[in-house]
Structure to design on (142 residues):
């Protein structure tokens, strides 16, 4: 939801079309189709929402997006915690990539932040997942 709303804000500020990307791992409706429907419900003209719905991971997001639109400058909107790997990957396919993170995690840590909680578990697991993804992409030459 953060990515969709941030992309919507970028579209309203710039008038640029939006390309949503993401397939389906489970045989359900592709993520990109759901995102397009939501953007259209917010008032984005359907002709301004492009869809890439075959990808199953970040590398395929970039690969299929490049095949769809060519090497044009892009504004990359994704979760801030995912931005490093996404930017690394998209720069392999596009000459100009402007990062636009959605949902930044920041602030001055307090004692309570170091206590176990569902939020800290979630954020730490996301960070670990992204670091493993970076290592995996580097090992595979992606």
């Amino acid at each position: 939801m953060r990515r969709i709303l941030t992309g919507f804000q970028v579209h309203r500020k710039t008038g640029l079309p939006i390309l949503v990307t993401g397939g389906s791992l489970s045989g359900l409706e592709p993520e990109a189709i759901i995102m397009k429907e939501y953007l259209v419900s917010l008032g984005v003209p359907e002709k301004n929402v492009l869809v890439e719905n075959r990808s199953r991971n970040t590398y395929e997001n970039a690969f299929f997006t490049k095949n769809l639109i060519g090497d044009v400058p892009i504004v990359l909107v994704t979760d801030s915690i995912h931005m490093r790997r996404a930017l690394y990957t998209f720069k392999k396919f596009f000459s100009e990539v402007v990062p636009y993170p959605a949902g930044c995690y920041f602030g001055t840590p307090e004692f309570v932040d170091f206590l176990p909680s569902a939020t800290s578990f979630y954020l730490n697991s996301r960070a670990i997942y992204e670091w493993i993804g970076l290592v995996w992409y580097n090992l595979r030459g992606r």
